[in-house]
Design brief:
Helix content is 81%, strand content 0%. By secondary structure, the protein is mainly α. It is elongated and about 50 Å long.
């Protein structure tokens, strides 16, 4: 596995997109299956947004100041996803708004991923050395080990509160 920060995030994006495709491919009556897929989506997004917010974004803000606006927008996009994830975690898969809320989450996250990959990842790669990207990636991998898996865990809640207060 590569320790390049951008490679790590792109790999996670692929996994998240696969979960989204799995959800979309289910029929209207696949309530239990959709519930299981959404549980995986919640875990993947909770971990992913945690390591981005705790490591990638602060490092990019320091090292590539011209991306400040992109990073601030990304924090806000994470906040929207965090709110939806918290709401989904509390919903039963057979709830009236479960599919709709999941669809909105998917659309928001897909937009966020496209912006990262198409707009600011190339700028980050151009601005930072391979060594710097590896250092950031290694820290992300360390943080992933202790990252929250559910939005109700204290470190995930802190991330959400920080987004509101900061």
């Amino acid at each position: 596995m590569s320790s390049d920060a951008i490679v790590i995030l792109r790999d996670e994006h692929k996994e998240i997109r696969k979960l989204f495709r799995d959800f979309k491919s289910q029929g209207d009556n696949a309530v239990k299956t959709k519930g299981k897929i959404v549980d995986k989506i919640i875990e993947a997004l909770t971990v992913h947004t945690y390591i981005e917010n705790e490591v990638m974004y602060p490092e990019i803000r320091k090292r590539v100041p011209e991306l400040e606006d992109d990073i601030l927008e990304s924090y806000e996009e994470h906040h929207v996803a965090d709110v939806l994830v918290v709401e989904l975690a509390a919903l039963s898969p057979d709830a009236e708004r479960f599919d709709a809320k999941t669809t909105v989450l998917i659309e928001n996250v897909e937009h966020h991923i496209e912006e990262e990959e198409d707009e600011w990842f190339p700028k980050v790669r151009e601005a930072l050395s391979r060594k710097e990207l590896r250092e950031i990636g290694e820290e992300m991998l360390r943080r992933r080990e202790k990252a929250p898996r559910r939005p109700s865990q204290p470190s995930a809640l802190k991330k959400t509160v920080d987004a509101i207060i900061k």
